[in-house]
Amino acid sequence: MFSLVYGLFFFLALSGSPLTRGQPDDGKRYICRAVPVTGDASCQVTLLPELTAGGQEEELRNTVMQLRETILLQKETIGKQLGTINELTTKLSLCASSSDDGKYDRGGSWTKDKQNTMGDVPRDPNSTIESLGKTMKGLKDRLESLEQHQMRANSSGTPFPSELRDMLQLRLVDLEKQLLRKVNYLETEKTTLSNATAAYRMKTESTLNALVERISELEKGGGDFKSPEQFKLSLPQRTNYLYGRITKSLPEMYAFTLCMWVKSSASPGIGTPFSYGVPGQANEIVLIEWGNNPIELLINDKVAQLPLAVRDGRWHHICVAWTTRDGQWEAYQDGESVGSGDNLAAWHPIKPGGVIILGQEQDVVGGRFDAGQAFVGELSQVNLWDRVLKPPEIRSMANCTTYLPGNVVSWLASNVEVFGRGAFKRPLEVCQDRLPNA
């Protein structure tokens, strides 16, 4: 439109013909000016200075060329901006679809449902963040360029499309949000990986500790045993310094069953094969035969005499079961019940946190032994349960049908420490050789 108006003006100027037929040439030149319908038609019109024909032609030619260059520049700028907007719109659409549907798996790659079709977004999350950062930097540079163009356009009075700048600003904000989501995702993955690594490290340390314990057990002589429970504790002399100690303590219990294999020919009594003492009560659980008395079971310093006879130098399997309810007890020898009773420390719970000694009676917790009450002979498979075993379970252990380890204290070489020169852990005879009729 501008080209048409100025072309017509240029043609009239060059022709030198009067603007209105029949009017004489008064030596003056006039310009046309559009006046709005509602405007004041009597407004003064500023006349241009008189120009020669050559000056007018040059002036008009320069004006047309400037306008043409401005229009071409604006057209080129708008074309570039539209191409940039289309490119960014396409990329952001792909990013949005991949963020919503094509989640990264733990390996850092796209899932099979939504393949990564965005050419400049790599599969590695770290590379994704780097690529987004570069894209954002490019957008900021373009935004700054647009602002500079706007400033130049404002200074020259040329209108500038601010919508493009606003649209790019919105796109830049969207990319910043996407970058933040990627960073949060990587932080979550890092935390998960750290937790998994810590759990694996703890598991590895636990395995190594178990291996160290096993090696220590083998170094102490456990490697001579066919299995961890196939050993016996030998205490050949009546002293106050030969004994074994269980490394584990007891929880609070309201019932128990104590079983063991015993071999002794000591006189006038086998001594104390088992004692458990707690702070304030050294005789919490004691199994003892001293002097000419029968074997006695002490619970909280209360006594019950047991009809057991094991002083013949042969292996015998003995069990004692007790419950706090009415203080009921029952004794077994070689798989058979030989006696029972009640009112033995009735309603008294077994206290936790004490010390288990094999072969000595404790006057204080863990010490002050009396040689006259020491056990002389061999002990094996001392197991303790926090319940009353059924008669078939006891019978199966006594006749070598099965072996049941205690759920509170189990007979393992790693659970038994030996003290005193002359006390040993030795391999145990096979079960059939321990039977009374063997």
Structural write-up:
With 438 residues, this protein is an alpha+beta fold. The chain is 37% helix and 19% strand. The chain contains 6 helices and 14 strands. The chain has helices at 2-15, 53-100, 125-156, 162-219, 391-398, 431-434, and strands spanning 231-235, 243-246, 255-263, 271-278, 281-289, 296-299, 302-305, 315-323, 328-333, 336-341, 355-358, 377-385, 416-419, 424-427. The strands form 2 sheets. The chain has a 7-stranded antiparallel β-sheet with strand order 10-9-8-3-12-1-14. The chain starts with a helix and ends with a helix.
SSE blueprint:
Layout: H1 2-15, H2 53-100, H3 125-156, H4 162-219, E1 231-235, E2 243-246, E3 255-263, E4 271-278, E5 281-289, E6 296-299, E7 302-305, E8 315-323, E9 328-333, E10 336-341, E11 355-358, E12 377-385, H5 391-398, E13 416-419, E14 424-427, H6 431-434
Antiparallel strand pairs: 1-12, 1-14, 2-11, 2-13, 3-8, 3-12, 4-5, 4-11, 5-6, 6-7, 8-9, 9-10
Using DSSP, what is the number of strands? 14
Shape: rod-shaped
Q: Mean pLDDT score, rounded?
A: 77
Radius of gyration: 52 Å
Provide a short characterization of the protein structure.
With 438 residues, this protein is of the alpha+beta class. It is 37% helix and 19% strand.
Keywords:
438 residues, 6 helices, disordered N terminus, 7-stranded antiparallel sheet, 19% strand, single chain, alpha+beta, 37% helix
